[in-house]
Amino acid sequence: MMEAILRFEKNTKFIDETNHSEAQAEVRKVSKKLKALNFRASLLKIGIWKEIAEQVEGLIVRCYFAKEKLAWEISRKQSLKKKIEIKWSDILAIRAKIMEDGTGVLEIELNRPPSFYEESTPIPRKHTIWNISSDFTGGQALNYRSP
């Protein structure tokens, strides 16, 4: 189970894409046209492993509507970026709790482990190139379902 503490900006828009059979096809059409939604997180926890953002942009959550994926990008000082990626089709359950102060917790249960990536050598003013990597959560991501 993955858990993230998030901070939502005032202009964050949310889309409810659930299994309402009549609306599902229309929602998918619309979501394919949406640009990625990015927001900051202060903590990502998977089992007992956790990543705490060391800087403002240290932990970014990206929601790719067209690709139907969620990604957590981890940036550490003097280190290559790392990324954890989840396909929407791998999500069994998702729960969001948003507090009045704008912070929230997002819990995700998966039916298979997420994918892991590490940044290749960065090139200034170019998109990040990601290489597949091994699980950097100390094996905690293999426990992708609640007991």
Structural class: mainly beta
Helix-residue proportion: under 10%
Low-confidence stretches: none
The count of helical stretches stands at 1
Q: Which band does the percent of strand residues land in? A: 35-45%
Q: Which whole number gives the mean pLDDT? A: 83
Distance linking N and C termini: 9 Å
Order of secondary-structure elements: EHEEEEEEEEE
Biggest sheet overview? 10 strands, antiparallel
Please count the beta strands (DSSP E, at least 2 residues each): 10
What would the principal axes of the Cα set say about the shape?
Answer: globular
Indicate the radius of gyration in whole angstroms: 16 Å
Tally of individual domains:
1
Query: Which oligomeric state applies?
Result: single chain
Summarize the structure.
This protein is mainly β and 147 residues long.
SSE blueprint and pairings:
Elements: E1 2-7, H1 21-33, E2 37-46, E3 49-52, E4 59-64, E5 69-74, E6 82-87, E7 91-98, E8 103-110, E9 115-119, E10 130-132
Antiparallel strand pairs: 1-2, 1-8, 2-3, 2-4, 4-5, 5-6, 6-9, 7-8, 9-10
Protein name: TRF2/HOY1 PH-like domain-containing protein
Organism: Quercus suber (Cork oak)
Pfam family, one: PH_TRF2_HOY1
